[in-house]
């Protein structure tokens, strides 16, 4: 039996071809008690009228208007939760200075648990209200704020992957904000895993703990190896930064005489549950390492402009068979909205394609065949992210989790094709246009009195 | 005497140094009956309490909250009004195809005057509600829709510069959408000038007619010359496109064996009232032509990504003493918001600075010293645009027009500096955050029951 039926038109990636989008009009999305999509009926299906009437009789039918569309909830693969207070500020500093002068002091200040609670309450609410239904997050080095973050996600209904941040390298981490030694780092990581086990026992929407070495500069090689073992032993996902900037990339090369990809591989930190943020400076000679390990890249197009020192060649990676999803990188990126990052993913790919310097002749200015379409960007934020997380979400189809957003066209008009509507939705949706959000069938944002 | 007093904190460009922003807290902005800022008082000025009390007694005082800020109204130097119905769609086509398959048919369809009225009503409302108080627009070849546009601007209180679009070259313009010959083009242009003269006689907010040859491909050389004469004789502003894309730029070179800048100059179309959209492919050897003529560039950073084939080197132009403002280029750009274009102006400048192709070594990847700050972007959308139009607006200071927007912080927080607040305002403001807009002292958008 169903728990909820939504009648409306939806967009979802064509599972056989991520360059295509299916648009289904006036469907009935039937959601079961576990929060999964049980079936989807179209107007000419024989049960359509019956199910609609049954849902109506039980007051379990939501009927949308013509200017409202259903999209899969978005999946944000890269967030620094404790950086939320500084979102959209100080972005004119280079990465190393931004970290040491702004970011590390801010993250350390979350030992003030009131600050943590207020911040995380606002962050989780904001993510949901932008249509993000699954979020992969870095917490802080300190564990208490991480527990508060996990509780907030449960309370507001955001599916979250959260990691206690590991920073144990005294040479590169400030004394006020680091793990005292490897065993502190590992014990705290284990403690957070146990905490989430307990938290999850009572709730339908789960928190997944994530093994989280911040990046190569912040960790000792020995610590990376212990974290790699811990991830394997517990079959846990891993998140870290990869080849983010000239500086970060050069650090690994000059300190260890090898790229960070190789260091992570040696520490057993690259597998099919690994999420690598940025990868902007990753050499194409190393693409196959990630491909062979089935590790995923979290493309953060806005943040990369400030800290990446180049555009991630998404099209080349997709063509190579690499797995890519999308991230906001709060607060390296100034926007909590994956819509804004979808837009920038398309725009940055076009700048890579066409080139930026008009003093170079057109034929040599850019990198041909680098452009991605809006459909491909949509894939990154939905099915691409879900694939990275091995989750049945990111698509609207039977058997998948009912993670959905209801969006109203920002500017109404009679457009020519379904693709035009999707393009307009992605280019123009602001927070206020996202009228309802469901996570696992639960209504978690409701601006239209559903 | 005053007509209105607004008590609040505001940001405005430092008129002596456009890289700096002044932040004045808890000021009284005193607006006279003509819609000009008469004076600005700060809390320690001796008349502060007196004026505040007088305004209060007459019910002419508006007092803002701590999370509300006043900014100058923005100036959009480049809009195609008749492209509004296709905003945010079909952006994956190259310029020439986009024009012939989408844009020209749409503009031609405005001979349906109901479509024109509904579209322009929505467009003008939208621009105002995004904080744009002065707009420079291309209308259509046909004149009746242009008159409807002018009336809508007057009715809703948007200060507008509007041009009847001239397209008389039968080789490049479709038969269904062009001026029959030069004399039709000129007569229709004159007719629109007369129409606005009459319209302006009754209204405080004025419509300025603009001489508007679409671009070099669409006009015959003879027609350009007659338009140049008409502009001089009537002392009218001029708007056109300049070196927008590889295609447009190459058209002038291959057809006339000279860049479009030289053709416009020969036709007497470059002067201190000329607005040139894009200029993305303008060679730096021609910068001094524009500088000597005091002509302005309308930088359209979002649109340029789709159609410009390079990033406009804004920093180099500013350093060279060229005059630059900002435009949305609706609908080449997908957003009606100058906030979004401010963001992209900063981001595109950083991509030009750092370069985009990670296969080139960091030292050779970008064009050093190309980065603009948020303050410089803010200048483009305010004082820069005002300078291009020779208008006393774009700054909050006595003697200037009271074109103002009241904006609420999208994400509230205690930030470290005034600059942090401005950065967050520019990076995060969405339509819903712009709570009130004044044009020439008239309240034209009011979401907070002022």
Strand and helix map with partners:
2 copies of one chain form a homodimer.
Chain A: E1 2-14, E2 17-32, E3 37-41, H1 48-57, E4 61-63, E5 68-72, E6 74-80, H2 95-108, H3 113-129, E7 132-138, H4 143-156, E8 159-163, E9 165-166, H5 182-200, E10 207-209, E11 212-213, H6 221-234, E12 238-242, H7 246-256, H8 260-266, E13 274-278, H9 287-293, E14 296-299, H10 301-307, H11 314-319, E15 323-326, H12 338-354, H13 362-365, H14 374-389, E16 404-408, H15 418-428, E17 434-439, E18 442-446
Parallel strand pairs in A: 1-4, 1-5, 6-7, 7-8, 8-10, 9-11, 12-13, 13-14, 14-15
Antiparallel strand pairs in A: 1-2, 2-3, 5-16, 16-17, 17-18
Helix pairs in contact in A: 3-4, 4-5, 12-14
Q: Radius of gyration of chain A over alpha carbons? A: 22 Å
Secondary structure category of chain A: alpha/beta
Give the N-terminus to C-terminus distance of chain A in angstroms. 21 Å
Oligomer: homodimer
Q: What's the pLDDT, averaged over the residues of chain A?
A: 96
